[in-house]
Amino acid sequence: MSTEVVYVLAASAVFGAGVYGLIVANHLMRKLLALNVMSSAVFVTMLTVAGTTPEGPDPVAQALVLTGIVIAVAATAFALALLVRLVQETGLVSLRAKDDDGA
Amino acid sequence: MNGAIETVGLVLVIAGCVFYAAGTIGLLRFPDVYSRLHALTKADNQGLLLVCLGLAVLAGSVQVAFLLIVVWSVGLVAAAVSAHLIARHARHAGEPHASRETER
Amino acid sequence: MAPDALAVLVFAPLVAALAVIVAPPRATTALALAGIALTAPALWVVTAAVLGGEVVEVALAGAAPPLGIAWRADGFSLTMAWLTFVVVAFVSLHALASFPSTSDAGRRFWPMWLILVASVYALFLSADLFNLYVTLELVTLTAVAMIAIGGAPAAMRAAMRYLLLGLMASLFYLLATALLYGQTGTLDLYQVGERLGEGALATTALALMITGLLVKSAIVPLHVWLPAAHGKAPGPVSAVLSALVVKVTLYILIRLWFWAGGALDDGLAAFVLGLLGAVAIVYGSIAAIVQTRLKMLVAYSTVAQLGYVMLLFPLASTAAFRAVTFHVLAHGVAKAAMFLAAANLLAALGSDRLQRLVGADQRYPVNVLAFALAGVSIMGLPPSGGFVAKWMLLEAAWQSQGWGWVAVISAGSLLAAVYVFRVVALAYAQPRPASSVRRPGTTPRGRFGATSVAALALAVLAIVLGIASAPVLSLIDLGLPPGMAP
Amino acid sequence: MTVGVVVDMMLGLALVALSLRVVTGGSLFRDIVLFILFGLLVALSWARLGAPDLALAEAAIGAGLTGALMLMAYRSIGADTEERPVRRRPGVALVVAVLTGSLVAVIGLAALGIERVPDAAGDAVLEALPGTGLGNAVTGVLLVFRGLDTMLEMAVLLVALLGAWTVLGDARPGRVHRVDRRTPLVGSLLTVVAPITLLVAVHLLLAGTDAPGGAFQACAVLTGCGVLMVLTGTLRPTAVAGFATRLLVVAGLAAFVLVGAGAGFVGHAPMTLTGTWAVYLIETAMMLSIALTMTLLFARARGLRGEGS
Fold first, then answer.
1. Chain A residues touching D92 at Cβ < 8 A
2. Does residue A24 fall inside a structural domain?
3. Which of C41, C393, D5, D117 might form a disulfide with C323, Cβ 3.0–4.6 angstroms?
């Protein structure tokens, strides 16, 4: 068993956990945690399946992951701002509470 | 000669790990915030020092050794400040003190 | 000349966005309009080159794929770029009135609006799987932020749901990108198509990618986020969401399927996608019929109309490709007009409950007319653009003897007629004497003015598209997928 | 099996256990802290996989910044919004999760088994890198070969900030839960740490052209300093975005746009960096923009002003 295999397996389990959390969790912030966990799994998969060059992991894959990390943080930051405002306005931390067609 | 240096380095690293283990056990087993902090900061900083020293011996390069000392001192500053803040916050929040509780 | 024009399409709105952020508010209108207007001559230059028979292409930073990213414009991407320009230009006119640049909302709206325009252009020009991911994220984030711009709790809830699902869909897409890169060593969509053999691995990766795209395109049953998001957003935002934002992922889907989807060529997957489309047409139309609010009705109509695009996959013929591309255009223009008219009526009446529309034609004739004209195209009545699209689609289904698809297309038009006529009939209904008195909350705003003109102009354009379809179709013919002949 | 693989396995198991805990646990606060720990372990994985650039970025941005943002938001929405228990019937979710997880495992493992394509983009990059004058291939990809991605990524950051400003509405900037500055340690920490972070950031930025590091890692360090200054009240959030703030926020994207579009005017393909100066200009502007953007997002503010002013 090689290092890459270990990380692919771990990443897939983490991805599954993230999907589970995203579906099951009520609290919006936990959904965001689940999304972030999923994106870490995607990044690890991306680097490992890209293979290696003589000078280490594939540099393109590294750059893509770096870009992806920053985009994930940006999206999370915006989602958190939206979440905080939503809680201030409605007092609810989940989307399930009531029907969206009202009002 | 090489073997001896390597042995010294390994012994230092392993000793550091023992301190880390002790600190972690303290974190898990101690009854309240204050004593847990005590375990973490004291034992772990000692552990970090020993591991850094061991690695410096193993690396055999002055530059690396210097960097490891920098790592240790930054770790020390971070631990001091964070432990201080946590303890202070806990005291203000009225976090219970295990020993006093048993005295009552 | 033409390759530089591609850069103008992306950079002009982007520079305008940056300038709007930094410059004082009074300069906003001029800067924004300049940024959008500059893309017109650029589009013209590129179109001339494409009509001359070339595919306009530029390797960014001189690094051709697989090393770098290339921008590429053929008839298909150019058609989408023209749709972008037309919708954005007219909706911007509306936004000038509904988001005045000196107001708080306006200061927030315009920079994001311009970035959205730049990213949609960048998306249509790009064929790099990862670059598409970045542009998609950009489109989604701007769209979500603009839905929430009004600050109403319902809008923010809709925005949050859209954001969560959108981010999840992006991750599926990104995961597939990772796998495809691992397999082919390139991110360029066309090169992936060449290098990707058949096999379970390729199929699964493409299936993951398609799932993500379907969520973002709100194809039933993954549409749950759309009605609230499109229905609760401010008027200009709804218009551009329905006309453009859901189309960009369908564009990627079509590109992927017909240019790089060799591994999916087994009929079953295509049939499933077509079936989803059929369900979307029927379900979306019925849901639209039972709505009690105008904007929600229009939003569900979008769910239904997106279904037609999915019929392309099982039909998979030149005729179907032309029909569906034309449908995307016609629906985009008509739906933008419809949302703008609905938003104007909402602003004027103080509510978009359908009952409030009774007699609206007497007070707001322009907007009601705009809604009705756009409705003609949505239903597919001659001589509108929608008619041409649906007629061509029917022909395509007929030719390939897909009787089931024929039935769905016809049923969709009938159902669309029901929900459009429901609105139009109410609006033209004779008001009872009591209700002719102006109700509280009813303002004369939206009777004439830029907002109504923008809606009417788009609606007229949706009709004109049907009369003058020949040049558009000849442009589409220059972007047919490999293996399809005009 | 080597010692390294055993370490990998322990790390992998810890990642899985932590992720399960984070998505299902009962106490949100604790799970956010565990998420930060998860991020740090991911950073270790990057180091194990031989990607130090990513390890640096993950530790600082993925774990540190995201965690700080999460904790801040957690404080803002208040402890009284503790979630209700998870949905009653998680069966379907479990099936979906196991299916997607195994799907990823199967195709991931299959993808690992594939022989490397001879002219993969990564190899093309290594071949073309000497022509750029850069020594770090990752920086080369980010700035030269796939500069468009990075430019649009800056736009994503800008949109996140504009979006946050939008949903902030007309509200006063969020009350930042400040650390009590009367404790002697915090003040002296800042006076020691602030200059060091600046030094480290500049070092990372310059080192990034040839060694691990670059604008993203540098900005993360600067952001850390910014967050510290907000927390200690050295910088206070304001409700108005002044001219300087707006200028600095767009600087990174603007530098990219100017260089990228400008290349077209002097006869190069768009997005061509015509010299090393362009690399340094863009990297510096990006570092400043990202650091300010992130600090503003953290403080949920439109601007910042110094303590005295």
1. 23
2. yes
3. C393
Pairs of CB atoms within 8 A across C/D: 159
State the Cα–Cα distance between residues A58 and A90, nearest whole angstrom.
Answer: 47
Query: Tens digit of pLDDT for each residue in D123-164?
Result: 899 989 888 888 889 999 999 999 999 999 999 999 999 999
For the entire predicted model, the pTM comes to 0.94
Could you tell me the two tokens for C273?
């996608």
Question: Tokens 């000196």 correspond to what residue?
Answer: C102
How many interface pairs between B and D have CB atoms less than 8 angstroms apart?
15
In this prediction, residues A57-64 reach a mean pLDDT of 94
Note the pLDDT tens digit of each residue in C155-193. Answer: 999 999 999 999 999 999 999 999 999 888 999 999 998
Of C402, C246, C244, C253, give the one whose Cα is nearest residue C319.
Answer: C402
Amino acid at C328: V
Residue with tokens 């953007």: D293
Confidence (pLDDT) at D100? 83
CATH code of residue A76: 1.10.287.3510
Query: C75: which residues sit within 8 A by CB, 6+ positions away?
Result: C50, C475, C476, C477, C478, C479, C480
* pLDDT of D118: 78
* Residue D99 pLDDT: 84
- Averaged pLDDT for residues C372-383: 93
Residue A48: give the domain boundaries. 3-90
What's the pLDDT at C83? 97
Task: Tell me the residues of chain D between 230 and 289 that have a Cβ less than 8 Å away from chain A.
Answer: none
Q: What's the distance, CA D56 to chain centroid?
A: 10
The alpha carbon of residue D309 is apart from the nearest alpha carbon of chain A, in Å, by: 27
Which residues in C lie closer than 8 A to residue D162 (C-beta atoms)?
A: 21, 108, 111-112, 115, 145
The reply to whether A56 falls in a domain is yes
Residue corresponding to tokens 């300087």: D244
Total domain count, chain A? 1
B and A adjacent (3 or more CB pairs under 8 angstroms): no
Domain boundaries, chain B: 2-96
Out of D35, D84, D116, whose CB is closest to A33? Answer: D35
**Is C266 exposed, middle or buried (CB count within 10 Å of its CB: 0-12, 13-18, 19+)?**
exposed
d(CA C238, CA D169) in angstroms, rounded, equals: 20
User: Residues of C numbered 9-68 whose beta carbons fall under 8 angstroms of chain D's beta carbons: which are they?
Assistant: 11, 14-15, 18, 21-22, 58-63, 65-68
d(CA D193, nearest CA chain B) in Å: 10
Asked if the C-beta of B70 comes within 8 angstroms of chain D's C-beta atoms, the answer is no
Instruction: With a cut of 50, say whether residue A102 has pLDDT above it.
Output: no
Other CB atoms within a 10 A radius of the CB of residue C61 amount to: 24
Mean pLDDT of C477-483: 89
Tell me which amino acid residue A15 is: F
Where would I find the H helices in C126-188? 129-147, 153-184
Instruction: Find the mean pLDDT for residues C46-70.
Output: 91
Give me D163's structure tokens: 């979006």
